[in-house]
Amino acid sequence: MSAWSDSGTPDYPEDDISKGEIYASHIENKIRAEWGLSLRSSYALLQSNVSMGKMDLTTLLMDRKGNSLWYDNYEKQLNQITKGEKYPAYQSFLPKNQFSGLLNRYNYEKNAKSNIFLHFFLVYNSMFK
């Protein structure tokens, strides 16, 4: 599988992040939205980027409004993201930013499906085992 982010080194290329992680992060954010948990805005953390909550621009997943960088309204994965999409999405996390959000993208919060039965089942089984 091809690399999404070249975080590895020539000595350790296995540290590259595969494009399969985009899909895994998409599913993770869908589940987090269903459970009312905060969404994952970037895959990796950048320790030196304290002012932006250690968010990593190279592995950004969404804008502040919950719109996916990598999936359209129909949940079709996009192959490429332009700088014109990525930078405004990244800057949307800055205080007082007026970015209205990425257009025609999958929105995790608007598409979250509350599954009351699943919640009840999981809570019930965790209490009585």
Q: Briefly, what is this?
A:
With 129 residues, the chain is an alpha+beta fold. It has helices at 20-34, 83-91, 116-127; strands at residues 3-5, 17-18, 67-72, 105-107.
Amino-to-carboxy terminus distance: 40 Å
Strand content: 5-15%
Average per-residue pLDDT, rounded, comes to 84
Low-confidence stretches: 8-13
Helix content: 25-40%
Structure, explained:
With 129 residues, the chain is α+β, with helices and mostly antiparallel strands. Helix content is 28%, strand content 11%. Strands 1-2 form a two-stranded antiparallel ribbon. A two-stranded antiparallel sheet has the order 3-4. The longest helix is centred in the N-terminal third of the chain and has 15 residues, at 20-34.
Tell me the layout of helices and strands.
Elements: E1 3-5, E2 17-18, H1 20-34, E3 67-72, H2 83-91, E4 105-107, H3 116-127
Antiparallel strand pairs: 1-2, 3-4
